[in-house]
């Protein structure tokens, strides 16, 4: 894996990350469709959004088709006919969040099988073994995740220190470091000192990439920004910085300004299920009856397969069509997923282009101007966070 920066300032990153399945432009949003919400896009549809790195869940792949089948097939790229890059999570977070009865001990995450209730254990070694079989280009360490809002300082420290010990076990268990890039995950909740301490410990392990974990768990946006701004200046210039679980357009744009360059979130596909389209003017609920006779595309000027006219090789889907199909959940959800994933990827492409062309502050100002009727409505956390990196949202 290699990273080359296109701009000299690592504070606002634009780079090319070269992975085993081809180059990926950063900053990037990685789509993730959870099995629980809806069928993922087909590989062709995903490719058409410009996606060159998607996130798949180790937990789901481990359950179905399972490690034996994956090993026989030669991994997840073959399984789904995807020739670009894949990042897999460790599986731990999904277990802790999906299975109420999961317990964490030094050994690993103990849980009851969702199939038959038998006790099972996910260790750092199992997680890496599964990800090695999946063959993903980027693999994540198993970490001890605690919601940032937890008031239990002792438990927070335990989780942070255990995550470091688990990283060492992951590194030792990893059988293919030359083709699969292991990322560490920085923990420490909202405690800036603990985050810094964890960052120092993690950096000593010299993994190819670095992730910041545990955020987007209901903390105030101010606190989120403080954690990201405290960590990014400590990171080496030539390693990707992935903030996990981030996906609202404003959060993405502000986080890039704070020095992060990889993101993922289930929200774009999840919200599609409720009839919501993400647009540059905010969210649009197409179930609303007012769209029944609305024959425009989901968003004017959008280049996604749905919105593009038939002349341009698109589907020419109208808001009215989605409104009519809202009851048939899968059709509308599928189309909106295509649009929403495109929106997120296109947003990151535009952010990147503006950085390369040295007009990122102007881009951010325009982005917020499109999203809110007046500057008075801009969220204070965003204005404050951007001020810290010398971007004045109120400037015109
Ligand atoms: C992998 O992730 C992509 C993007 O979310 C999705 O379309 C695809 O269905 C996923 N594959 C599996 C096997 O879960
Ligand atoms: C988790 O711990 C609780 C309390 O010690 C116990 O009752 C439960 O069975 C444990 N669950 C698993 C999956 O080990
Ligand atoms: Zn569109």
Automatic annotation (TrEMBL):
Its cofactor is Zn(2+). Substrate binds at residues 89-93, 143, 187, 214. Its EC number is 2.4.2.64. One of its GO terms (molecular function) is metal ion binding. The active site is at 89 (proton acceptor), 264 (nucleophile). Keywords: Cytoplasm, Glycosyltransferase, Metal-binding, Transferase, tRNA processing, Zinc. InterPro entries: TGT, TGT-like_sf, tRNA_ribo_trans-like. It is found in: Cytoplasm. The keyword Methyltransferase does not apply. Zn(2+) binds at residues 302, 304, 307, 339. Transmembrane segments: none annotated. GO terms for biological process: tRNA modification. Residues 15-371 form the tRNA-guanine(15) transglycosylase-like domain. One of its GO terms (cellular component) is cytosol. Heterodimer of a catalytic subunit and an accessory subunit. Belongs to the queuine tRNA-ribosyltransferase family. This is Queuine tRNA-ribosyltransferase catalytic subunit 1. It comes from Zalerion maritima.
């Amino acid at each position: 894996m290699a990273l080359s920066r296109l701009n000299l300032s690592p504070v606002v990153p634009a780079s090319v990350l070269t992975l085993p399945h081809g180059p990926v432009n950063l900053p990037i949003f990685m789509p993730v469709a959870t099995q629980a919400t809806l069928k993922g896009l087909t590989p062709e549809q995903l490719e058409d959004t410009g996606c060159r790195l998607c996130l798949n869940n180790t937990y789901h792949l481990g359950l179905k088709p399972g490690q034996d089948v994956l090993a026989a097939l030669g991994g997840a790229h073959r399984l789904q006919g995807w020739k670009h890059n894949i990042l897999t999570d460790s599986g731990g977070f999904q277990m802790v969040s999906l299975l109420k009865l999961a317990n964490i001990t030094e050994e690993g995450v103990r849980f009851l099988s969702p199939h038959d209730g038998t006790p099972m254990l996910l260790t750092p070694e199992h997680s890496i073994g599964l990800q090695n079989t999946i063959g993903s280009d980027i693999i994540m360490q198993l970490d001890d995740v605690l919601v940032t809002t937890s008031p239990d300082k002792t438990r927070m420290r335990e989780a942070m220190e255990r995550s470091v010990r688990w990283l060492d076990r992951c590194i030792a268990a990893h059988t293919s470091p030359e083709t699969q890039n292991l990322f560490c995950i920085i923990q420490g909740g909202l405690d800036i000192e603990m985050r810094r301490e964890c960052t120092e410990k993690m950096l000593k392990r010299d993994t190819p990439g670095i992730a910041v974990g545990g955020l987007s768990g209901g903390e105030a946006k101010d606190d989120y920004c403080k954690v990201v701004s405290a960590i990014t200046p400590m990171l080496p210039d030539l390693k990707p910085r992935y903030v996990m679980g981030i996906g609202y357009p404003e959060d993405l744009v502000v986080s890039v300004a704070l020095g992060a360059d990889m993101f993922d979130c289930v929200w774009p596909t999840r919200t599609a299920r409720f009839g919501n389209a993400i647009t540059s003017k905010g969210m649009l609920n197409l179930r609303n009856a007012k769209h029944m006779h609305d024959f425009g595309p989901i968003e004017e000027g959008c280049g996604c397969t749905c919105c593009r006219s038939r002349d341009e090789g698109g589907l020419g889907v109208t808001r009215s069509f989605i409104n009519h199909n809202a009851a048939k959940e899968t059709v509308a959800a599928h189309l909106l997923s295509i649009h929403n994933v495109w929106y997120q990827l296109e947003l990151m492409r535009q952010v990147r282009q503006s950085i390369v062309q040295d007009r990122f502050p102007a881009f951010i100002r325009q982005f917020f101007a499109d999203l809110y009727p007046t500057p008075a409505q801009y969220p204070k956390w965003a204005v404050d966070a951007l001020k810290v990196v010398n971007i004045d949202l109120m400037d015109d």
